[in-house]
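Hi team,

As requested, here is the filled-out complex form for the adenosine-5'-triphosphate run. I kept the field names the same as last time so the parser does not choke. Let me know if anything looks off before we queue the next batch.

— J.
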Amino acid sequence: MTVALDIRGLTRRFGERTVLEELDLTIGAGEFVALLGRSGSGKSTLLRVLAGLDRPAAAISHLPRQTAVVFQEPRLMPWKTAQQNVALGLRRPDATEAARVALAEVGLQGREGAWPATLSGGEAQRAALARALVRQPELLLLDEPFAALDALTRLRMHALVADLWRRHRPAILLVTHDVWEAVSLAGRVLVLEEGRIGHQVTIEASYPRRRGDPALADIEAALLARLGVGQKAASASG
Ligand SMILES: Nc1ncnc2c1ncn2[C@@H]1O[C@H](COP(=O)(O)OP(=O)(O)OP(=O)(O)O)[C@@H](O)[C@H]1O
Ligand SMILES: [Mg+2]
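And here is what came back:
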């Protein structure tokens, strides 16, 4: 397996509090991995380390050359157009054209000149995805990128991300609270527990994955139980 990311024994403390402890994580090239975990378990802390936004004394044996991050909020510069935002910091002569192509890929053709304030939440998040994609990352880090969107827009975004992943094949690490989002998109789902990957499940079902698929429903229920939710529903029905 070609490796996109390999970390061994990653520890991150904030004062007295140890958030990540001796964490090991390997992600294969082109692999789609989802990361679940309770609030405060350290998911964003891990992503910040992987994105190079935080450098603890870590045993990172392989970090990709090119990573890109999309956060829960789009973080677009309000005084720059959608296209300028996507092209921002791109060091290549065809940056403007590359930004236009990336915007078209996320369905924002015709909106190149739009100001961020005039974009809907879903559109702004698609522009943020375009800004990540245009960098042709080996590893794409997504920190709850759809959490603020309405349910229907979120489902559309799932389809878009699945499609972009198929076409470009970056490795993806998607942090989410939405267990179905993890199960419907990822080939492997991890659960962050007590500072390390405490549990993982590989999902081989083909795409697109259907909500009614009983095998997927079992995986979803097991993950919910692992996260400490859903037992009530399970015992009520059993
Ligand atoms: N810069 C910081 N200084 C001090 N403590 C921090 C800092 N960043 C994160 N923490 C602490 O680390 C812990 C993990 O935070 P983190 O944001 O990684 O959790 P999370 O799993 O992303 O949670 P959520 O699901 O709510 O987004 C929390 O207890 C948080 O308070
Ligand atoms: Mg977080």
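Two things worth flagging: The first helix runs from residue 43 to 50. Residues 232-238 have pLDDT under 50 and may be disordered.

Thanks,
J.
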